[in-house]
Structures are given as C-alpha cells and as structure tokens.
Amino acid sequence: MKILHTADWHLGHQLHGHERRFEHDAFLDWLTDTIKMRQIDALLVAGDLFDTANPPASAWQQLYRFLARLRAEMPRLNMVLIGGNHDSPSKLDAPHELLRAFDLHLVGSISRDGEGRLETDRLLVPLQDREGKVAAWCAAVPFLRSSDLRVEPLEEGQDRLIEGVRQIYQDVLTQGRARCEPGQALIAMGHAYLAAGQLSELSERRVLGGNQHALPADIFTAADYTALGHLHLAQSPAEGVHYSGSPLPLSLAEANYNHQVLEVRFEGGKLVGLERITVPRAVEMIRLPQGTLEEALNAIEALALPACPQQAQPFLEVRLLLPKPEARIRERVLAAIGDKPVRLARITTSYQGSGQGLADGAGQRQLDELSPTEVFRLCYQRQFDGEPEAELVASFEEILEQVKESNS
C-alpha cells in the first residue's frame, strides 16, 4: 500500500498582501498528477487546509474542486483530511455526511456521547488497497483544543494538557489496534507541536501542545506510522513520526527551503519505505542580501527576469542595513522596480546602532544624572549609527518644552 502524506496547505493564504491562488492551483494540479503517476492508494492531509477560520469562497472552491477531481479520476483512492489550528472545526464538519457518501473523510473535531465518552467510530477510517482489501486503519485525530480534553486525576508533576491529549490518542489507537487484523497497519494522524520540533520563522502560530506544552513523541508509540501537521519544515522528531511540512513557503524566510510531500509504503502492515518528493516551486522568491539602500537599488536594476503574468511573478524582499533613517525608501525601491516582472512583498530595515541600553553607556551614570536630551541621544545611538542631526535634536527639545509647559 502507498500512502501520500501532506499537510499545511493554508488555502487562501496571502503573502504580505499578495494572494497565492495561482500557486495553490499549481500545487493541487501537481499533486493530482503525482498521485496518479505513483499509483497512490491513500491521501492523508494532516491539518491546516485553510489559512484562516473564515477562508474566502475561492479557497473552499479549490478544495472541493480538487476532491471532486480525485474522486472522478481515481475512484478507489482513500482520502482522509483533518482540521488544524487554523481551521474552523464546525465548518469542516458541516459537509461530513455529504462527503462520507462519496467516501471522503473530512474530520474537523472530535465528539463525545451523552456520557462524555469519546466517539471513536468517525475517527477510525479503514484504508483499502487497490484490490479493495483493508490494508490499514487510520486514526484521524484533528487538532485538539483545550475544550476537547477530559483529564482524569493527575499525578504530581503531570501536565493537564499533555495528559489530556495522551488520553485521547490512547483511546483512539487502542480501538484502532483492536480493529487491525494481521497484516494491517495502524496509522495515526495529528496536528500538534512535538518536543524537539523545529519551528519555521514567522509562519507558525503557537498552539496547544506547543512551547511549554510540547507533546512527547511516545504518545504515538502504538502506531506504525504517524502523519503530523503544523510544523512547516519537514522533519522526523522520532522514529516513525513525521511532519511532511507545508507544500508552499509560507513566509519569505522559507524561500530557500525544499518543500515536499512524503510517500510512505507498507507491506503486510509493516513500514517498508519513505520517500520525500520535492514540490516544484510555481512562484520564486527573491531575497536581496542585506545592505545599503544604494546596493539594494543596484541589485534591483540588475535583475534580469523573463516576462510572465502578474500572478506568476516572483516575490521580492528588500533587506536593508542602514546607519540612520532615510526618507522615501519605498518610493525609491518601487521606482527601481519599474515595470520589471516582480512583486515587492516586503522591505525590512535594520540599523547599525550600538545596541546598548542606557545602563550600558554614559559611563555607568544614573538615569537621574542625565538630561532628557542626553537620554534621547543615547536612545538614538542604540538604534542608529552616529549622532542625531541637529534638526532632529532641536525638534525633540521643542516637544520637550511643550510637554513642560503643559505640565506647569
């Protein structure tokens, strides 16, 4: 049996105001072709289908068009999708009965019976091979919020959230293992932050089980493979536990990262192979080396880019390291871009200040020994290089006098 594991699509995502529908369309077309070419038996999507809890209608259309196309072109393909922390549980669950009629499993939240017992039936999905025989069971557990947890009395030192998540997975995986016959694998799905997980800069929200509540990987020891989402960089925090990563870079910091999906192969219920498949980049990202404004303008002038539709134009990040503030930076950058086929995504500016706090400079003098103008100069030097211009100091002192007059 061949399984394709992916996650963190973030349909509807915008990168600094630029929509990315073109990139997501390209990815979903590529994914469809890859599933057909590699004769995949099951598609697992481990959460964050959408970028927000209220995605635009175009994002829902993308998802439903993709699912409909796969069902029409690959009638036997198993499809299991779970909600992530960016998704609305109720909105994902709303079409559950309709999608189940087409053997599509979209799980937005867990549910409990009238006595508070976890309802595991809708979380356990049989995965059939191309001969129509059940080759694996999938424990499709969506992102767990604190309201989902029912925690038994804790021992001293135990974390309430971690133990609550552990109990849910223990219940589901125990039921899943009981349903497995010889030669059938048990696969866990989840959307969470595991201990030792590597976060992607600027593109991931803190979640339950994140940072101070990082989940231990031993929660998933009962599974033969664990397909996780949330972390945008593909990684394996423990044996048999894998994050596929996001298929698209979700921040400019991921510009040079090799985004991927995972093909997982089972034989006789045993994991026999895992292959990382690189997702082709539909739109490039250009990050100029950090430097002066003149260096950045020269680099932009030197860009030689082929003509292409606006939606396929590369994103550009201009990174500046300046001795002091400069006027009209954005206007000058846009003028340099002119009609080049590139989209300005972001200008980041750093300054060559000393970085010292007030207690580090001025000969270790006490704050009450410094005049307000001296404090202003020291704060300026902390962030910028050199002395503030006379006009700036004069403006500060004028404001200072106005404050004194208003308080007198």
Give helix and strand order, one letter per element, not per position. Answer: EEEHEHEHHEEEHEEEEEEEHEHEHH
Low-confidence stretches: none
Query: Beta-strand percentage?
Result: 15-25%
Euclidean distance between termini CA atoms: 81 Å
Helix fraction, binned, reads 25-40%
Structural Rg = 27 Å
Dominant shape:
globular
Order of strands, main sheet, comes to 6-5-4-1-13-14
Please count the beta strands (DSSP E, at least 2 residues each): 17
| Arithmetic mean of pLDDT | 89
What summary fits the major beta sheet? 6 strands, mixed
Structural class: alpha/beta
Please give the count of helices: 9
Structure notes:
By secondary structure, this protein is an alpha/beta fold. The protein contains nine helices and 17 strands. The strands form four sheets. It has a six-stranded mixed β-sheet with strand order 6-5-4-1-13-14. α2 (57-73) links the parallel β4 and β5. α8 (372-383) crosses α9 (390-407). The longest helix is centred in the middle third of the chain and has 20 residues, at 160-179.
Précis, in short:
With about 400 residues, the protein is of the alpha/beta class.
Spell out the blueprint of helices and strands.
Layout (H helix, E strand, L loop, with lengths): L1 E5 L7 E2 L2 E2 L1 H17 L4 E5 L10 H17 L4 E5 L6 H5 L2 H6 L2 E4 L16 E5 L5 E7 L19 H20 L5 E7 L33 E5 L5 E4 L2 E3 L16 E8 L2 E9 L6 E3 L5 H10 L12 E8 L6 H9 L5 E9 L20 H12 L6 H18 L1
Parallel strand pairs: 1-4, 4-5, 5-6, 8-9, 9-10, 10-12, 15-16, 16-17
Antiparallel strand pairs: 1-13, 2-3, 7-8, 11-12, 13-14
